[in-house]
Write a structure and sequence with these properties.
It holds the Pfam family Beta_helix. It comes from Lysobacter firmicutimachus. InterPro entries: Beta_helix, PbH1, Pectin_lyas_fold, Pectin_lyase_fold/virulence. Keywords: Signal. This protein is mainly β. Helix content is about 5%, strand content about 40%. The longest helix is centred in the N-terminal third of the chain and has 9 residues, at about 5-15. The two termini are about 25 Å apart.
Length: about 280
């Protein structure tokens, strides 16, 4: 069995690629809001946040930094208002309270972004609580919390609220403890596929938390590696009893709680020797 460690997070960043699509507009360093459809790019680092207030917007940060969040009066580095057809890709976000905030948007994709040391949550999706879902997808993002374990409040990598049928695919989360790395609330039929939770630290939380109002979650091909096998739970919450868990790999999670899943198949659990 191959154990993925911190090196896996670094490798994922190396293979990140910028969008090949040309820009319609270059977002100026002092421009905060986007009010018109089109393809927008960044060509310089910036301190100001970005708020997308239009349908049919693609924002490609091209690896540029949205920094200075810790000293900002703004809450989120990138906010997507209740709009449709938005894509945010290739942004590097550091030390904001919230990295990316999806506020009741639909047909929206958050792709290949890096969020470092969020103060509250890396990616927050507030959905419309529609039975058919909003068509939101989180794909290939990297969220790391190294050096931020002393934050004053619990820090969550991905938090979903009322985001039915959301898909989170191939995201990498590293260096977290707290209440839950991926926290699912009031969100039915969520699909978590191919995500990696690396260097999960001992604490009070779990890698995946599903509340009682989040039925039929599907966890497939996810990997969790905890630093030490000390009271680090893989998955928990009342929603686990209605979840499907297939071919996940949980290392040093004690307990993993995979046996509580309503449907389970070919999951792998491994404990390493205790570290003094």
């Amino acid at each position: 069995m191959r154990i993925v460690s911190r090196a896996g997070f670094a490798l994922a960043a190396v293979f990140a690629s910028a969008s090949a699509v040309a820009c319609d507009f270059v977002l100026q360093p002092d421009q905060r809001d986007i009010y018109a459809p089109g393809k927008y790019c960044l060509f310089a680092d910036r301190d100001l946040p970005i708020e997308i207030r239009s349908d049919d917007v693609e924002l490609d940060c091209r690896g540029r930094l949205l920094g200075n969040g810790a000293g900002s009066s703004w809450d989120a580095a990138v906010t997507i208002a209740p709009r449709r057809g938005v894509t945010v890709r290739n942004c590097r976000i550091e030390q904001w309270p919230r990295g990316v905030y999806v506020d009741r948007a639909s047909d929206t994709q958050i792709v290949n972004n890096t969020v470092l040391r969020p103060q509250s949550v890396g990616v927050l999706v507030q959905g419309n609580d529609l039975a058919e879902g909003d068509g939101v997808r989180l794909i290939g993002n990297r969220i790391a919390n190294y050096g931020n374990q002393g934050a004053l409040q619990p820090v969550t990598a991905i938090r979903l609220q009322g985001a039915n049928r959301l898909e989170a695919v191939n995201n990498v989360v590293a260096g977290f403890g707290g209440e839950g790395v991926v926290h699912v609330e009031h969100s039915a039929d969520v699909r978590l596929t191919g995500n990696q939770v690396l260097d999960f630290e001992s604490g009070v939380g779990s890698a995946f938390y599903l509340d009682r109002y989040s039925p039929r979650t599907r966890l497939v091909h996810n990997t969790v590696t905890a630093l030490r096998p000390y009271n680090v739970r893989g998955i928990e919450g009342d929603g686990v009893r209605d979840a499907t868990c297939i071919e996940n790999v949980f290392v040093n999670t004690t307990p993993s709680n995979l046996e509580q899943c309503a449907s389970k198949r070919n999951n792998i659990e491994q404990l390493s020797p205790s570290v003094p």
